[in-house]
Amino acid sequence: MPEEPGVLTDVMQEGVVYSYDLTNDATSFRISTQQSCLAIVGASLIRHEHELTCLIVAGEQPPNPSDECILRDHPQMRHPTKGRESFEPDPHYGLEDRYLESLPGFARVVLGTRFDLSGNFYDVRYVNLDLGRSYAVFTDDDAIFPPAIHYSERDEIRKSALHELDRYKELFSAAAALMYLPVMFVAETKRVQETQFVTDLGTDRDEKEVREAVSELGKDEVPFTRMVRCLAAARTTTATLDRNLEPPPLTFKSEGYWKPLPLGKVGEDKSGNPIVGKTWVQRIESWSAESPASFLIRRQTVKPKGAEPGTVYVMRSPSHEVDLYKIGFTRRGAEERARDLGAATGVPLPFAVIASWEVGDCSGVEREVHRKLDERRINPRREFFYASLSEIIATIESVVASETLESGHVSLG
Q1: Are 18 and 11 a contacting pair, CB within 8 Å?
Q2: Pairwise pLDDT comparison (375 vs 120), residue with the higher score
Q3: Residue 32 contacts by C-beta under 8 Å, 6 or more apart in sequence?
Q4: Per the domain annotation, does 238 fall within a domain?
Q5: Are 130 and 70 in contact (CB under 8 A)?
Q6: How many domains does the chain have?
Q7: How far is residue 65's CA from residue 74's CA, in Å, rounded to a whole number?
Q8: Longest Cα pair distance anywhere in the chain, in angstroms?
Q9: Range 102-125 average pLDDT
Q10: CA–CA distance from 132 to each of 39, 40, 71, 107 (Å)?
Q11: CA separation for the pair 32, 174 (Å, rounded)
């Protein structure tokens, strides 16, 4: 990690969202806490001048609160926003919707915080716990309180919020470390693989609505393709798989934050001068002052056992059309299998391993994945499927999770 977070002002474009997804098995790397196991599945960063906003999506097992507690203790929408009193949860959502599709048994946790890159401090924390039909929100930001809430009730909410925020302090520390992801993609270019994908707009570029959007906004504002960059995990020869990581040295300080405005709207900067697209919001009150602590990241140490141990993989060659992937298995390493395929005649560009899973029954898992994705298969004699990467990974995750539960080899770190 760089010693100064300010390096991100040079690496990151202002106003651009940097979004990262974990494409391999998220449970391979877990953050261990006293109460639960947390697996990060995605992170998003956006910079406004020296302010960096960070959002983390993670899964938690066992979930907090439990399904039983939600049914018993959590009324929905207890404090609706003024003017939106008639808003109610969608009745089609239930407890099962709080769990991540890619991580069965892990309930969704959305975390947010802001960093000041020039002063090495952070300001305000948010934790949003998915309850199925709504979210339980815990924060040290007083600005979220509706005016009608009495001070005594605020104190109770504050006490509860601080307790929940403390529960996720390791996840906040991980967020402070993950803000250096843009730097990693610059510093570790040899480990970065690039693939260009056609967007839905690109597929429908001849449709009337898309042509009108191009005419109105310009071609630069209507992306027909997306360049996706994948950073491969560094290989390690160390014997230990548990590591205590120290986040960058940050202190708590409350000043305010930049709030984005709709296109063309004029706000004010810190000095009261007009500025387009954003406005400075002054924080009046803060009641949190805790620096990020070290956190333990734990690599899964239990090797899967079964009748046929091996690896199920997803590969792709840049020479293939967009959303065409090979799903197979090998009893050797996935990278070794990719080299074999790349050496075959008729493959102009080498295969790259997009994701892989170590399983106890590699041929059985592959067979079940192929069955579930049968409609996406382009040729019954070949292992190529035309589907989005997210759909493929979610399908494999569900099959692998079923195999793990049936075999009884479950490790919570």
Answers
A1: no
A2: 375
A3: 170, 296, 297, 298, 413
A4: no
A5: no
A6: 3
A7: 9
A8: 74
A9: 87
A10: 19, 19, 10, 9
A11: 11
CB of 273 closer than 8 Å to CB of 228? no
Residues 159, 210: one domain? no
What is the average pLDDT across 178-193?
86
Do 248 and 226 belong together in one domain? no
Within a domain: residue 413? no
pTM: 0.62
Element (H, E) at 362: helix 362-372
* Mean pLDDT of all residues in 323-352: 78
Give the pLDDT confidence score for residue 124 in this predicted structure: 83
Per the structure, the complete domain to which residue 78 belongs is given by 5-184+244-298
* CA nearest neighbour of 118 among 42, 49, 70, 67: 49
Verify cis geometry, omega within 30 degrees of 0, for the bond prior to 62: yes
Q: Higher pLDDT residue, 26 or 239?
A: 26
The pair phi, psi for residue 40, each rounded to 5°, is -80, 130
171 touches 56 (CB < 8 A):
yes
Instruction: Give which of 177, 219, 172, 228 is closest to 198, Cα–Cα.
Output: 228
pLDDT at 259: 73
pLDDT digits (tens, 9 = 90+) for 244-290: 667 777 765 656 667 777 777 788 877 778 887 777 776 544 444 44
Whether 363 and 262 map to the same domain: the answer is no
Block residue for tokens 């250096």: 180
CB 180: neighbour CB atoms within 10 A?
19
Question: Is 194 within the bounds of a domain?
Answer: yes
